[in-house]
């Protein structure tokens, strides 16, 4: 599909892209660039690309597709560094979890004649770094593109074809709408997880060793998200501030209402809510966004459980 692809940032997302690009034969040459020598060295050991450099401008020279996969707060600095070396006609995209802030940071550095099309694969894990990537990460996951009004339709089609070749389904969205949707489906759950794990570790009446010993309960599902990369999530919070604050405020209101229902023993209210949320889980499974297996399939994976 492309003569040369430049991957700027080679953590979970960058390295997963490297694997799928190789598997699908999507580029003649993959140039890998990242900030630290240590990460770059590890990417080289893993054979993720064809050339390696800590200078992002060197990586993007002659590239037909540039994919920026760095924490969202670093997007502006990366755009400034590559700006002068971009090839006319190149497609520049990103994978950042927030979109308005990335556009505000990167767009001013984009020279005439290149195609800047922001994007976000809704696919990830709690692991980070170049060892974390795998080719199947994007399979059957959504990738949201947030093209700008002036985006060239042909370049947009090319980027869509690329993501489809990576296994993704494509949706298009306005960047501000993207940030509100992701604030509720991704950023809020993450913050609830950080908060609940923090609360449990601060308790005085229950010891930390008891929390860990009996964690194979509801708590465990929050700890997976709470183990995610602190830099990435700090940046998401700071760069989607308004939408996150709005969702947190809605969440706090609803939590207070639940607190009140428990205090006044309003069983009907609790039962109705729990029935509604159970139906949402069912819809998620029907939409193919998760598997219909007890405990997310963990017991089956250990070989001691079945679907029924
Ligand atoms: N992890 C997820 O679940 C997930 C999913 C979708 C999108 N994203 C987004 O993808 C991006 C990358 O996330 P990740 O999970 O791959 O993170 P990661 O921590 O695994 O990797 C980040 C990479 O960026 C590099 N980097 C950091 N600052 C840099 C800079 N200033 N210049 C050049 N390189 C720099 C790091 O060395 C590393 O190679 C983030 O914007 C994140 O919001 C993450
Ligand atoms: O499953 C996870 O570990 C994730 O949180 C991945 C997840 C998500 O919320 O779905 C996290 C942030 C991204 O921007 C995209 C994907």
UniProtKB/TrEMBL annotation:
Xref: PROSITE patterns: PDH_ADH
GO biological process, one term: tyrosine biosynthetic process
Any one GO molecular function term: prephenate dehydrogenase (NAD+) activity
Domain Prephenate/arogenate dehydrogenase, first and last residues per copy: 3-292
A Pfam family of this chain: PDH_N
Pathway it works in: Amino-acid biosynthesis; L-tyrosine biosynthesis; (4-hydroxyphenyl)pyruvate from prephenate (NAD(+) route): step 1/1
Domain of life where this protein originates: Bacteria
InterPro entries assigned to the protein according to its UniProt record, in alphabetical order: 6-PGluconate_DH-like_C_sf, NAD(P)-bd_dom_sf, PDH_C, PDH_N, Preph/Arog_dehydrog, Prephen_DH
Keyword Ribosomal protein: no
Broad class of enzyme this protein falls into: oxidoreductase
Reactions this protein catalyses: prephenate + NAD(+) = 3-(4-hydroxyphenyl)pyruvate + CO2 + NADH
EC number of the protein: 1.3.1.12
UniProt keyword list: Amino-acid biosynthesis, Aromatic amino acid biosynthesis, NAD, Oxidoreductase, Tyrosine biosynthesis
UniProt-listed Gene3D superfamilies: 6-phosphogluconate dehydrogenase C-terminal like domain, NAD(P)-binding Rossmann-like Domain
Protein family according to the UniProt entry: Belongs to the prephenate/arogenate dehydrogenase family.
NCBIfam families named among the record's database cross-references: PRK07502.1
Protein name as it appears in the record: prephenate dehydrogenase
Organism name: Roseitalea porphyridii
